[in-house]
Automatic annotation (TrEMBL):
One Pfam family, short name: p450
Keyword Flavoprotein part of the UniProt annotation: no
Names of the cofactor(s): heme
Classification via Gene3D superfamilies: Cytochrome P450 (1.10.630.10)
MF annotations from Gene Ontology: heme binding; iron ion binding; oxidoreductase activity, acting on paired donors, with incorporation or reduction of molecular oxygen; steroid hydroxylase activity
Protein name as annotated: Cytochrome P450
Family: Belongs to the cytochrome P450 family.
SUPFAM superfamilies: Cytochrome P450
InterPro entries found in the cross-reference section: CYP450_sterol_14alpha_dmase, Cyt_P450, Cyt_P450_E_grp-IV, Cyt_P450_sf
Superkingdom, taxonomy of origin: Eukaryota
Alphabetized UniProt keyword annotations: Heme, Iron, Membrane, Metal-binding, Monooxygenase, Oxidoreductase, Transmembrane, Transmembrane helix
Listed PANTHER family: 24-HYDROXYCHOLESTEROL 7-ALPHA-HYDROXYLASE, CYTOCHROME P450 FAMILY 7
Source species of the chain: Staphylotrichum tortipilum
Amino acid sequence: MDALTLSNHTAAGPTPHGFLRSINLSDSKTTARVVILLLPFPFLLHYLIGLALFHHAHLRPKTNQVPPTLPHLIPLLGSAIPFAFDCANFIRRATQYANTLVPVRLTLLASSIFLFQGRRTVAAVWKEPRLGSPILIYTFALQHVFGMPARALAAYRADNSGSHRRPHPASNVEERNRVDYLTHQILFRAFGGRGLQVAVERCVGILGRELGGVVPPGEEEWVEMGDLGGFVQMVLGTAVLEGLYGPALGRLSPGFLGDLWAFDRATPKFAKLMPRWLMPEAYRVRGRLLEGIRRWHDYARQHFHEAAVGEDGDADPYWGSEMVRSRQKVLMEVDGQDYEALAAADLGLIWASVTNVVPSTLMTALHIFRNPSLTTRLRSLLFSSGTVSPTTLKPDLTTLLHSTPPLLSSIYAETLRLHLQAYVTRSSPHADVTVGGWTLPRDKVCMVNTYAAHMDEGVWNTRGGRYPVGKFWEERFLVYPGVPGSGPLRPDIEKGPVKVEKKEGATKGEPTFSLEGLEGAWIPYGGGYAACPGRHFAKRIILYTTALLVGGYDIEILTDRLEMDDSCFGLGTQKPKHEVPFRIRRRKGGEGIVG
Ligand code: HEM
C-alpha cells in the first residue's frame, strides 16, 4: 500500500488525525511529496482571504474607503508579473467589478499603487487640487528613463510644494527650488497664447519643407516607400524637433532623431528598471542622445545673443525657442543641477514632445488612407469648409481651428481614444485625499490608465455592439440632430454635469462633434491642472498634418495588414507592429474641389 494511503478509516471516511498518522514520514520521498502537496495551501488561503475582502469591500462599501486590494496568490510579488508583462489584458481585468470600472489597489513587489478608474472617479481626480502634481512620476522617469544623475534628483524629490503658484502650506521648499511649479509655468507659457501660435507656425513651415524633400513640388509621380510610420517619424519628427528646439540640435548630431525613435522603443525596458547588461545597445543610444543634447547646449551657450531672437519674438537659431532659454535659466538655479542634469531634463521634454504627437498623427492618417471612401468624404469636407485652399492645397491654420470639419475632429478624437495607452500618475504628499467616494492614502501612488477608460463598454456608444470599443469608428464622436442614440456616450447613461468642449461646426442638419459628458472618460491628455501642457500644440499639429496630407496628396496603403504593438503600453500612443508600405504623390492644385 502506498504510504499516502489512509490506514485509519472510520465509517464516514478517514479522520484528519488518522490521515496525518498514516503518512510514513521516515520515507524522505514521501515527505517531499507531502511538502509539495501542501505548499500551495498558504498561497491559496492568502488568495481566498484576499478575494473575500475584495468582494466584501465592493458589496458592502463604506463611505470613503481605501480601494480594496486585488487578490493575488503570492504575497510580496502580488500582481507584478501580469502588471509588467500582460499589461493591457491585466488592466482591463483588474479594474472591472460587475461590469463597472472601479478603483483598485495593486500589490507590486511589496509596495502598492492605486488604480483609480471609472469616469466619475477619474473626473473627481482631475478636480482635486491636492492631486494636481505629477512630480512623483516625473522624478521616477528622470532617474530611470532619462538618466538624470542622483545628485540632481534630490531637489525633485524634495519638492513637495506642488505645481500651483501658491506653495502647499506644509511645504518649506525655497522658491527657486520649486522645480515642479517653475517648469510647469514655462510649459504653460510655451504652449499657450502667442507661444503656441508661433511654435505651430514654425513646425508646419518645416513640415512643408520636409515633405518637399520627399515628394518635390511640381512632380506628380508616385513615390513608393516601405513604411508610412518611418516616413511620418522622419518628416513630422524633424518638424516638431526643429520647430521647438531649433536647427542646431539636429545639425550637430545628425543621428539624433533616429536615436530618439530607438530610445522610444526601449523606454518600457528602462521603466521596468532593466539593467545595462541586459540591454547595452539601449543604454548606448541613450548615452548618444544625452551627449547630443550636451553638445547642443554647449554650442548655444557659446553663441546665443539676445539679437539672435527672430521676428516672432520666440525662436533663435541656437536654443531654438524661449521655452528652452527659460528652462536653462530656471533649472540652473535649482540645487544640485549641472549641465548633465539639464541634458537629462531636456531629453525628457524632447521625448514627451515628439513621441506621442508623431504616432498619433500617423494613426490618424492611416485610418483615413486605409479607407478610400473616408478619404474622399473628408477631402470633400476640407475643401467645402474652406479649411484647405483649392489652389495651394494647403490648410489655413486659423480656418482649420475655427471651422474644423466635425468629421475630422471625430477621427482625431477616435484615434486618440483607440490608441492612447498611458498611465497618468498623481500622489498627495501631505494628507489622505478623498475623491469620488474613495480614499487615496497620503504619499501613495494613484494611477489612471487611459486605455481602461477608453475601452469602458459601460460608457462608450457602440450602437448596440455594431462598433465595438476596440475598433476604429470615424463617427463615434458625431451627434446627428434628430437621430436618437448618436454621439459618443451610450444612450442609456446620464451625461452628468460635465462638459469638456463646445460642439464644433453646428450647421443645421449636419452632424456636430461632441465631447459632452466625457470628462473622465476621454482622457488622452490626462486631466486637471497637470494635464498634458502640449495638448493644444498636439491637436493643432495632428489636424494640420492630416488636412495637409488629405488635401494635397494621394496616399495608397499597400497592405491590408494592421496589427498594433502593445510593447509600449502605459507610456503613450500605440504604433503599428509591422511596416506599412505605401505610395504617395502630390495632387494637382484646383483638382481638390469635390462636391
Ligand atoms: C498626441 C500627443 C500627446 C499626448 C497623447 C500626450 C499625453 C500626455 C499625458 C497623458 C500626459 C500626462 C498628463 C497628466 O499627468 O495628467 C502628458 C504629460 C506631458 N506632456 Fe504630453 N502628450 C502629447 C503631446 C505632447 C506634446 C506635443 C508636448 C510638448 C510639446 C507634450 C509635453 C508633455 C509634458 C512636458 C508632460 C509632462 C508635464 C508635467 O511635468 O506635468 N506632450 N502628455
